[in-house]
Design brief:
The chain is mainly β. The chain contains two helices and eleven strands; from the N terminus they run αββββββββαβββ. It is globular, with a radius of gyration of 16 Å. It comes from Rheinheimera mesophila.
Length: 180
């Protein structure tokens, strides 16, 4: 039995993408609202900056304190949306754990999309000795003019950051390795 893949992104996926793209050029503050395994890597001021938007891709640097290593990349594909996590070192080179993520497997909603870990990510997690991440799913929630949330779930792990879209903040410095 083969798994069918839709021939095109769903209307809900296209709406989600367009609503996120409408935030291009803006930055917003956020805070951790759920973290059942707190880490110092996620302490400090948190910002998301929607930038580098095209008809097929949106890049969203996620800044934590002085750490500008993380960028979420949302790409419109022939069959849905793909989320990747780009990680860079301070000198702009790729971290070994970069471009992991997943692809939508359901239509989702205009306000919510889920991205289960893809095969590339699962292989990377095994290679980097983080096999607990093989079961990762990432969830993005977008309520225009209200909030944006990034959530990670897997067995025994939940992490969520909520961003307030009602108050723009000053744009952060570009992420490590990004063009100015």
């Amino acid at each position: 039995m083969s798994l069918s893949v839709s021939a095109a992104p769903s209307q809900a996926q296209l709406q989600f993408f367009d609503q996120l793209k409408a935030l291009c050029g803006k930055a917003f503050a956020g805070k951790t609202t759920v973290d059942n395994q707190p880490s110092p890597a996620f302490s400090g001021e948190m910002l998301m900056h929607v930038r580098d938007c095209s008809d097929r891709q949106i890049q969203v640097p996620f800044v934590v304190g002085e750490n500008r290593s993380r960028t979420w990349i949302i790409t419109k594909t022939d069959s849905g949306l793909k989320l990747q996590h780009q990680h860079k070192h301070q000198d702009g080179t790729d971290d070994i754990s970069t471009l992991y993520g997943g692809h939508t497997t359901t239509a989702g909603w205009a306000q919510a999309q889920t991205f289960p870990a893809d095969d590339y990510s699962k292989d990377l997690f095994i290679k980097t000795k983080t096999p607990q991440s093989v079961g990762n799913s990432w969830h993005l929630y977008l309520y225009p003019n209200e909030s944006f949330s990034y959530r990670l779930t897997r067995e025994g792990r939940e992490f969520r950051v909520d961003f307030d879209l009602t108050k723009e903040v000053a744009l952060p410095k570009p992420n490590w390795g990004a063009a100015k």
